[in-house]
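cron nightly-structures :: item 1 of 1
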Amino acid sequence: MPIGTQITQQSINGQITACALTLRNVCQQIHNLSTQINGQGNGLALLGMIGFGSAPDPDNPGDISDAQLAQNVIAYLNTVAGVYFGTATQDSEFDFDQELSQVWGGQ
């Protein structure tokens, strides 16, 4: 909603609906990505086959490979989607924002 626009019950209800639908759709996309990569139980190998490097990379946290970084990020995202869908829990404190910032590309 643009700054200065009059807030109404209808506008707030519209924003709630839009946010809820967007969150649902994003969580479904994340679930689909995880299934696409990990569905056959060969996620890391599949990532390597499609071009993600398997050698340690000093540009990645902990010098992990590009394939492992992608696998980790998919797992982080899928945990968030799993919490949304009620299929996963996060038992300990974990900063998803910090972990996912690795792939923001400066945005």
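cron nightly-structures :: done
The chain has four helices and no strands.
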